[in-house]
């Protein structure tokens, strides 16, 4: 009988039948921080949209709850299909609150959608300069 050879640790993990792997320390630390709710504003983030949902359908669905100033389904540049989310801007905060109350968890084009106040876009990160001064800026 040949002597048994232990497989390297990485191969044991690859061929293991257990699907549990502890999360990396950074991911566990990020998950431990509570999620901050966005401040009420007139811009709503809508997720869970069907690939067939158009901007017109989104505007029509949300206009039942107030004056929609702008609606947009974000689509893929190549395929043209929806990425599954969009934005709706109302004229007033009251209309936005009614829009969330009326559409959050409801069906649109056969899919359950979720509406919440949109978070402001974070400022763009400056490219690293590797310790060298940038030209043209003091």
TrEMBL record:
Transmembrane segments: none annotated. The keyword Hydrolase does not apply. Keywords: Repeat, RNA-binding. InterPro entries: Hud_Sxl_RNA, Nucleotide-bd_a/b_plait_sf, RBD_domain_sf, RRM_dom. Residues 42-120 form the RRM domain. One of its GO terms (molecular function) is RNA binding. SUPFAM superfamilies: RNA-binding domain, RBD. Pfam families: RRM_1. PANTHER family: NUCLEOLAR PROTEIN 8 (PTHR48029). This is RRM domain-containing protein. It comes from Eucalyptus globulus (Tasmanian blue gum).
